[in-house]
Amino acid sequence: MALSALDWGVVGVYLMVVLFIGVAVSRKAAASGQELFLAGRSLGFVAVGLSLFASNISSTTLIGVAGSAYQSGISVAHYELMAALILVFMAVFTIPVFLRTQVTTLPEYLERRFGPAVCKYVSALTIFLSIFVDTAGSIYAGVLVLQVLAPGIPFLPACIGLALFAGLYTAAGGLRAVVYTDVLQAIVLIVGAGVITYEVFAQFDFSWTSAMASVSADRLSLIRPLDDPDLPWLGVILGLPVLGFYYWATNQYIMQRALGARSVDHARWGAMLAAALKLLPLFIMAIPGALAFALLPPLENGDQVFPSLILNFLPAGLVGLVIAGLIAAIMSTIDSTLNASSTLVMYDFLKVEERGWEPRRIAFWGRIVTIGFMIVAALWPLVIRDFPGLFNYIQQVFSYAVPPIAAVFLLGMFWKRMTGVAALWTLGFGHALGAIILFWRMGALQDGVSDGLPHFTIVAGITTALCALVGFVVSLVTSSGHPEGMLWRREDSRGRGGLANYKWQALVIVVLVAVLIWTFR
Predict the structure, then answer these.
(1) What's the predicted TM-score (pTM) here?
(2) Residue 215's closest CA among 296, 327, 293?
């Protein structure tokens, strides 16, 4: 099925609107580094919440979640449900500390807590993960969509085109352009995914009973056995909280929205809005992906499921709307990671404010760095396509890289005796252990034998515990002490009175997550 002129028109209008937003805010972004990288700390909760949701979508939903659900079932939605719980945790603990300390980057918090070596170590690793995992993964996802819609399109030129489009409006408008376009992108992708969900259920006459009968029961179950090769229940308990904590609570490209909020209340309300929206992927991405197993012919690559559903079940016009949603999901991650990575370079490595750089000089070089990262991210998908699925690539890389970072942040924020020397030992030990596990698994895979290790989510949980133990022991034998104000305090959890108190919203989110897990157990 070829796209109609109406479909291309819808997509074209969407792209023009995104470019207009980037151009419209570009002049203001040149005023200062704080404007370019934190939107002048003026973002309201709706913008924060929608941007948090949209920025994450490309990496772990639509393409990846639908494809994983097609191959193994809806248990992949645990990543989304866990994100909702982590956002609640952020609202209570990490957001108030980061905003109270007025940091520009999250590694800056580590610098004040542990010293410059820890800051630069984590900042460099964050840049690597953002560009080579998140940004490049999103570009790869976009090219998969384009190749399904237009099979003759060459891979590398398509990668360059997507990176160039997102990179230019990000470099021009900074975080404000990223957030404002994310608001539009969140709305478009929710509507687009909702349309495809409606059409999938229409194939079963809107009967849940008929839909359940079309696939095996385990495909529509969130709780999987301990020996499940895709996502065992123990991995959900041990590993997903670690991966989720790093991704949402300590990742610059996600937390940058909260850092740019106009107040702690708006940052918290934004997190609660994003948490509520993270309940949707179960229904509009995972379940349709699982049901697609009964609707589509066998596909070699699960990452092609969502675009295949679009082409097979949507009429002209609606195809264009959903394609715009897909492009929105892809662009929202690309623009976010590019902006965040350039922020880390400018503030953690170049120290532009400490050196007294003029605002326009900061903005100029920030844009140059953004464009440089855009070029790197455009080429890395040539490597990603050798992995067995986008979602597998992203989660495997994170499972080896993030446990020591999560341990350092948690110990640093909640235990006053954690030292800078212990933080460095924790990071070094954790990443050395992760490298050993990675090479062991690669060798076993090459030899065609079992590696004898549990699921990577379980390994991530165990590795985090070992890293925390190293940090604890080394802290006991090194000099203690911590900068004043860097730890979480009980008063940080206070909120407004009445229904405006974020704690009521958090309670509702936790209850809804529990109900969903029980319903689809």
Answers:
(1) 0.89
(2) 293
